[in-house]
Amino acid sequence: MGTNEIIIRSAQAQDLEQAARAFLQQIGPERLIAFHAPMGAGKTTFITAICRALGIEETVCSPTFTLVNEYMLPNGESVYHFDFYRLKNAVEALDMGIYDYWDSGFLCLMEWPENVEELLPEETVVVRIEVQPDGSRRVSF
User: Fold this and answer.
1) Which residue has the higher pLDDT, 11 or 140?
2) How far apart are CA 82 and CA 113, in angstroms?
3) 73-111 pLDDT per residue, tens
4) What DSSP string runs through the chain?
5) What is the pTM (predicted TM-score) of this model?
6) Residue 115's beta-bridge partner residues?
7) Alpha-carbon torsion angle 122, 54, 44, 105, nearest 10
Protein backbone atom coordinates (compact mmCIF):
# COMPACT_ATOMS: atom_id res chain seq x y z
CA MET A 1 0.00 0.00 0.00
CA GLY A 2 1.46 3.39 -1.00
CA THR A 3 0.96 6.63 0.88
CA ASN A 4 -2.61 7.92 0.87
CA GLU A 5 -3.94 11.23 2.15
CA ILE A 6 -7.31 12.61 3.19
CA ILE A 7 -7.99 16.22 4.13
CA ILE A 8 -10.74 16.87 6.69
CA ARG A 9 -11.89 20.46 6.21
CA SER A 10 -14.01 20.70 9.38
CA ALA A 11 -15.21 18.67 12.34
CA GLN A 12 -18.78 18.82 11.05
CA ALA A 13 -20.45 15.41 10.93
CA GLN A 14 -20.77 15.44 7.14
CA ASP A 15 -17.04 16.10 6.59
CA LEU A 16 -15.99 13.52 9.16
CA GLU A 17 -18.35 10.89 7.77
CA GLN A 18 -17.10 11.43 4.23
CA ALA A 19 -13.44 11.23 5.37
CA ALA A 20 -14.08 8.10 7.46
CA ARG A 21 -15.76 6.31 4.54
CA ALA A 22 -12.88 7.25 2.22
CA PHE A 23 -10.37 6.05 4.80
CA LEU A 24 -12.11 2.68 5.26
CA GLN A 25 -12.31 2.17 1.52
CA GLN A 26 -8.62 2.91 1.10
CA ILE A 27 -7.36 0.67 3.93
CA GLY A 28 -9.40 -2.25 2.60
CA PRO A 29 -8.87 -5.47 4.56
CA GLU A 30 -6.16 -4.08 6.87
CA ARG A 31 -7.05 -4.67 10.53
CA LEU A 32 -4.28 -3.04 12.61
CA ILE A 33 -4.42 0.75 12.45
CA ALA A 34 -2.08 2.97 14.52
CA PHE A 35 -3.02 6.67 14.83
CA HIS A 36 -0.11 9.05 15.48
CA ALA A 37 -1.03 12.63 16.31
CA PRO A 38 -0.40 15.25 18.98
CA MET A 39 -2.84 15.73 21.83
CA GLY A 40 -6.02 17.40 20.58
CA ALA A 41 -5.42 16.70 16.88
CA GLY A 42 -8.55 14.59 16.56
CA LYS A 43 -7.60 10.93 16.95
CA THR A 44 -10.67 10.01 18.99
CA THR A 45 -12.94 12.19 16.85
CA PHE A 46 -11.77 10.48 13.66
CA ILE A 47 -11.99 7.01 15.22
CA THR A 48 -15.56 7.84 16.30
CA ALA A 49 -16.37 8.78 12.69
CA ILE A 50 -14.84 5.51 11.48
CA CYS A 51 -16.97 3.55 13.96
CA ARG A 52 -20.11 5.41 12.82
CA ALA A 53 -19.24 4.66 9.17
CA LEU A 54 -18.99 0.97 10.12
CA GLY A 55 -22.49 1.07 11.62
CA ILE A 56 -21.52 1.10 15.30
CA GLU A 57 -24.27 2.87 17.23
CA GLU A 58 -22.96 2.59 20.80
CA THR A 59 -21.03 5.44 22.45
CA VAL A 60 -17.45 5.67 21.22
CA CYS A 61 -14.98 7.28 23.60
CA SER A 62 -11.27 7.12 24.21
CA PRO A 63 -10.37 4.23 26.53
CA THR A 64 -7.75 6.32 28.33
CA PHE A 65 -8.24 4.58 31.67
CA THR A 66 -9.45 1.15 30.55
CA LEU A 67 -6.85 0.88 27.72
CA VAL A 68 -9.32 -0.88 25.39
CA ASN A 69 -12.99 -0.52 24.46
CA GLU A 70 -14.83 -3.14 22.46
CA TYR A 71 -17.58 -2.10 20.06
CA MET A 72 -19.88 -4.40 18.12
CA LEU A 73 -20.47 -4.19 14.40
CA PRO A 74 -24.00 -4.87 13.10
CA ASN A 75 -22.76 -8.33 11.97
CA GLY A 76 -21.65 -9.18 15.54
CA GLU A 77 -17.92 -8.81 14.94
CA SER A 78 -15.83 -6.76 17.35
CA VAL A 79 -13.86 -3.57 16.82
CA TYR A 80 -11.20 -2.84 19.42
CA HIS A 81 -10.26 0.76 20.28
CA PHE A 82 -7.02 1.16 22.24
CA ASP A 83 -5.51 4.16 24.00
CA PHE A 84 -1.94 3.45 25.08
CA TYR A 85 -1.33 6.96 26.44
CA ARG A 86 -1.12 5.90 30.09
CA LEU A 87 1.09 2.84 29.58
CA LYS A 88 4.37 3.13 31.42
CA ASN A 89 6.02 0.57 29.12
CA ALA A 90 5.24 -2.05 26.49
CA VAL A 91 5.25 -4.82 29.12
CA GLU A 92 1.89 -3.48 30.35
CA ALA A 93 0.47 -4.11 26.87
CA LEU A 94 1.81 -7.66 26.99
CA ASP A 95 0.20 -8.12 30.42
CA MET A 96 -3.19 -7.14 28.98
CA GLY A 97 -2.81 -9.77 26.25
CA ILE A 98 -2.35 -7.34 23.37
CA TYR A 99 -1.36 -10.05 20.89
CA ASP A 100 -4.68 -11.83 21.49
CA TYR A 101 -6.48 -8.69 20.31
CA TRP A 102 -4.16 -8.12 17.36
CA ASP A 103 -4.35 -11.78 16.29
CA SER A 104 -8.17 -11.83 16.53
CA GLY A 105 -8.66 -10.71 12.93
CA PHE A 106 -10.91 -7.89 14.14
CA LEU A 107 -10.30 -4.22 13.44
CA CYS A 108 -7.93 -2.68 16.02
CA LEU A 109 -7.82 1.13 16.17
CA MET A 110 -4.92 2.36 18.31
CA GLU A 111 -4.27 5.78 19.84
CA TRP A 112 -0.79 6.61 21.15
CA PRO A 113 0.86 3.59 19.46
CA GLU A 114 4.25 5.19 20.17
CA ASN A 115 4.05 3.61 23.61
CA VAL A 116 3.98 0.08 22.16
CA GLU A 117 6.00 0.75 19.00
CA GLU A 118 8.38 -2.16 19.50
CA LEU A 119 5.44 -4.59 19.71
CA LEU A 120 3.48 -3.43 16.65
CA PRO A 121 3.24 -6.08 13.93
CA GLU A 122 4.85 -5.24 10.60
CA GLU A 123 1.48 -5.11 8.82
CA THR A 124 0.21 -2.24 11.02
CA VAL A 125 -1.09 0.70 8.99
CA VAL A 126 0.54 3.87 10.31
CA VAL A 127 -1.77 6.91 10.22
CA ARG A 128 -0.59 10.45 10.91
CA ILE A 129 -3.04 13.24 11.70
CA GLU A 130 -1.63 16.74 11.39
CA VAL A 131 -3.38 20.00 12.21
CA GLN A 132 -3.02 22.44 9.31
CA PRO A 133 -2.69 26.23 9.75
CA ASP A 134 -6.32 26.69 8.61
CA GLY A 135 -7.57 24.23 11.26
CA SER A 136 -8.21 21.40 8.82
CA ARG A 137 -6.66 17.98 9.41
CA ARG A 138 -4.33 16.12 7.07
CA VAL A 139 -4.67 12.35 7.51
CA SER A 140 -1.88 10.42 5.80
CA PHE A 141 -1.32 6.68 5.83
Assistant:
1) 140
2) 9
3) 999 999 999 999 999 999 999 999 999 999 999 999 999
4) ----EEEE--SSHHHHHHHHHHHHHHHTT--EEEEE--TTSSHHHHHHHHHHHTT--S-----TTTSEEEEE-TTS-EEEEEE-TT-SSHHHHHHTTHHHHHTTSSEEEEESGGGGGGGS-TTPEEEEEEE-TTS-EEEE-
5) 0.93
6) none
7) -30
